Fold:
Amino acid sequence: MNTRDLAYFSSLVELRNFTVVASRFNVSQPTITVAIQRLENEFGAPLVQRDRAHNKLAITRAGILLYQRAQRILKDLDLAHSEVSRANQSTIQFGMPPIIGTMWFPLIAGQLFSKGLLNYTQTLEVGSDQLLKELESGKIDVALLGSVRPLHEENLDITLLASHPFKAVVSKEHPLADAGHISFEQLARDNFITMTGKFVHPQALKAYSEYAGFKPNVIYSTPTLSLIKGLVRANLGVSLLVDDAVLPSDDVVALTLDDPLPERFNMSLVVRKAFLPNKIQQEFISTLFALKQTVA
Structure:
């Protein structure tokens, strides 16, 4: 079977137009037609039905079943291309969200530097949701991820390194600044400043506010942790941050939340199960495990 035929067929299912599919792959329309015919001969069943009178295309039940399987085959094929092309490289394709890069990665960076591993590292800093997609597609091989619940993914090896509570962060002028601990509903009338949606903090904010029975008034979102703390310090709003994010030098107050929610900032070391690291890459991964003792 020609895997290119599966790619043509998958696009045809999605686009329902032979001409548009041919244009996408920069081939002639008969090329797509012949490819579909080969697949129908291969599986002994019609995959598409063409209504030329009404210019419509329908996918048969057999076609839908093949499409579902083809998606996995094409995904695995793309992953194989990515892994094989880098098989003889010592480069470490590594990902982490900026908040982990700011708070916890520096604790291990010295060891990585002393072992000469940082020279081999290409780092992608984006939100954890995006990093999960990059791992699954093979664009990165290892990542430190944040999540509000422990991660469970079939194709990934996941090691929980640390689990930290979220805290409400307010200015020193806030009426609750001296409370020490509060319930989240006490912030119902406050404005909120939070990290952008690609990070886990908005998920935690949603969980806490739903539990407290109110919709938070988010006046500003940013991926920059220092900006959040600066705006809170100026008493422009409150925030929800992982406890280790707040330092004495930030000049803000972190309040313990009494709400009995399971949401925490979980940091996990994640490696794709199919990844076969070379000696340098394995040393890098092993060194990251040291964070479990450092930040637990």
Remarks:
- DSSP finds eleven helices and 13 strands in the chain.
- The chain has a mean pLDDT of 89.
- The radius of gyration is 25 Å.
- Residues 92-163+265-295 form a domain with the D-Maltodextrin-Binding Protein; domain 2 fold (CATH 3.40.190.10).
